[in-house]
Design goal:
alpha+beta, N Utilization Substance Protein A, Chain:P, domain 4, OB fold (Dihydrolipoamide Acetyltransferase, E2P), GMP Synthetase, Chain A, domain 3, 4 domains, five-stranded antiparallel beta sheet, 13 helices, about 40% helix, about 30% strand
Length: about 350
């Protein structure tokens, strides 16, 4: 390295320490280790060599530790007393001394090697910082600043100073944002990858909806109300099953809040998606009947065929299309919520009366 380059190199390390928080000594140590590996690769007799960077001026020296002997048999590790005295006036037979190795061509290229090493170290540091930052946010809901949405509807956001992208496949189909918007994002699993930290971002998952309810409904966050199950078709409709061991607690009322303020806060995040609040019941018949809301169920029966649990549900003919829903969505979500197959049959008023009469008998 030339003196000017050495000074610029050290100044750059000082700046990195301030801006990135990377310890300068750690960087210098990494550079010395990497330069030594490069030197040994080119100079096969350098097993005992080491690289030293002057912390004051950035000068690079390649040195070797050699034993002072009367007769040199291995020049790579031994030195005669005569030659040792040229390096140290205190040299004696049996001593080990540090000897400068003439490696000018190597040292001239050292600055370029050092730059690449530092760049790699900075990348590793930034990757580790991203991992550490987002690992603390794993399985949580955070606020993100929108930078832009591209033509493919990928969302560019900033979270705590780190910019990232949520692919369109992980967004709610209704999501349309502009620069400067603040949006909620669910952070799922955070893992260290080979090149980048792998982070699961989502606005269309059931976990996203669950965390929205936890944030807006204190009784859920405190554990007084439990979310038993969620069935979601993002952007269209969701059903959420709620339960509380406190029979005096109105779970639906708590989730809606005064003047529906809590529920409206959730709905505003979902941008048009509808939500059905369902009361969970350990009796599957009652649970399925509630899950088919807004339809009214006349009767339900739970049967098992082979390894499949089936809920056979009867509704008034006028309620049949409502129970099934548009393109089967209502019954499909109810089935997913209750984890049973649902068969729905429509009944005339006469058929209902006949069933009721039979039950009375």
């Amino acid at each position: 390295m030339k003196a000017k380059e050495q000074g610029i190199f050290l100044a750059a390390l000082d700046e990195l320490e301030k801006e990135k928080g990377i310890d300068k000594e750690e960087l210098l140590g990494a550079v010395e280790t990497a330069l030594l590996a490069a030197y040994k690769k080119n100079y096969k007799d350098a097993e005992n060599a080491y690289v030293e960077i002057n912390r004051e001026n950035g000068d690079v020296k390649v040195k070797a530790i050699k034993k002072v002997v009367e007769k040199v048999e291995n020049p790579a590790t031994e030195i005669s007393l005569e030659n040792a005295l040229l390096h140290s006036k205190r040299a004696k037979i049996g001593n080990e001394i540090k000897v400068d190795i003439n490696a000018e061509s190597f040292k001239r290229n050292a600055i370029q090697n050092a730059k690449q090493i530092v760049i790699q170290k900075v990348r590793e540091h930034e990757k580790q910082n991203v991992y550490n930052k987002f690992k603390l946010l794993e399985d949580s809901l955070v606020k993100a600043l929108v930078k832009k949405m591209d033509e493919q509807n990928n969302l560019y956001i900033e979270i705590n100073g780190t910019e990232t992208i949520i692919p369109s496949r992980n967004l709610n189909p209704n999501d349309h944002f502009v620069q400067g918007d603040l949006v909620s994002v669910y952070i799922g699993k955070v893992e260290e990858g080979t090149k980048f930290t792998k982070i699961e971002f989502s606005r269309n998952s059931e976990k996203f909806l669950e965390k929205l309810f936890e944030r807006e409904v204190p009784e859920i966050a405190a554990g007084d109300i439990e979310i038993k199950s969620i069935a979601r078709e993002a952007g269209s409709r969701s059903k959420i099953a709620l339960y509380s061991p406190d029979v005096n607690l109105d779970v639906k009322g708590a989730c809606m809040g005064t003047n529906r303020m809590r529920l409206e806060a959730i709905l505003s995040e979902l941008q048009g998606e509808k939500i059905d609040l369902i009361t969970w019941d350990e009796d599957t018949r009652n649970y399925v009947s509630s899950a088919l809301a807004p339809a009214n169920v006349f009767s339900s029966e739970i049967v098992q065929e082979d390894n499949e649990i089936i809920a056979r549900v009867c509704v008034d003919n006028s309620q049949l299309s409502l129970a099934i829903g548009k393109k089967g969505q209502n019954s499909r979500l109810a089935s997913k919520l209750c984890k049973v197959k649902i068969d729905i049959k429509g009944l005339t008023q006469e058929e209902q009366d006949a069933i009721l009469s039979g039950n009375e008998e």
